[in-house]
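Input chain follows. Return structure tokens only.
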Amino acid sequence: MNLRYNGTDITDGVNIIDVSVTDRCGGKSDSMDIMFSDSKKLWRQWNPAKGDILEVSQDGFSSGAMYIDEFEIFNGKYNIRSKSTPINSRTRKTNPWENVRFKQIMSQLASEVDLRLKTYGIEDYLYDRIDMTNKTNLEFMNERCILEGYSLKITDKKAVIYSEKELEGYDSVEEIGEDSFIDIYDFKTVSSGIYSSCLVEYFANNNLVKYKFTPKNPPLGDILKVNLRVSDIGEAERYSKNLLRYSNKMETIGYFTIQQDSKLAAGNTINIKDIGSFSGKYFIYLINHNFTNGKSYLK
């Protein structure tokens, strides 16, 4: 295992007790937890600071740049928790735009928090007006991505926007059977919080714009009713489809543990077999690689 601190390789100078990296498909930060033995009190001398950068790599896997978020000392040990989001991304702002495109907004907001924008398979929609009110840049970016059916992932100093639906259409990278599960596993499907359709409405200047989307063979559930600013029926239709998909995507979920497989990443699809009606293709929403106990935990 290789550990870099602010760009310097410190692998040989530390004693790592435990290290795990959590990789998410988007919406929340990736994170990394590292526990060191510090009987010689070296970490106190190095005096790490919030916002410093750690990166772990092993066998082709890399956590990417992780910003130190918190650290603690206890019983001769030093624990550092870091996240993929820069600390300066937590400031709340207000910002209006007019006649602006999706990528223009995303690029501006990413740049303001020292992130490079990367996009894959997205449409560059034009808006007549967009208002950001008392939100952090990343909160607002994530909200806009959800409305447009995209995911926002912050990784290695980049803001990556991609179509989750498109990734779901890719071939599965691996097939995993029940005999590969370690310890407890759990697959379930739910009805609570699942919606049959989505109604988007907006009333302004004595004009009501509304659109209700109901998919073919809808699940049982209430109507998801949303009031948000739309400029025309096209936006209302787009948002209603994307919000319904986002709200229902956790209808069937699974949790399980396998021997560490650092080739797997959030956003991959895998085939699950030998578990009856729960067998099939799944999208990796979250995966935690523990490089100490040699296990990978998947959701």
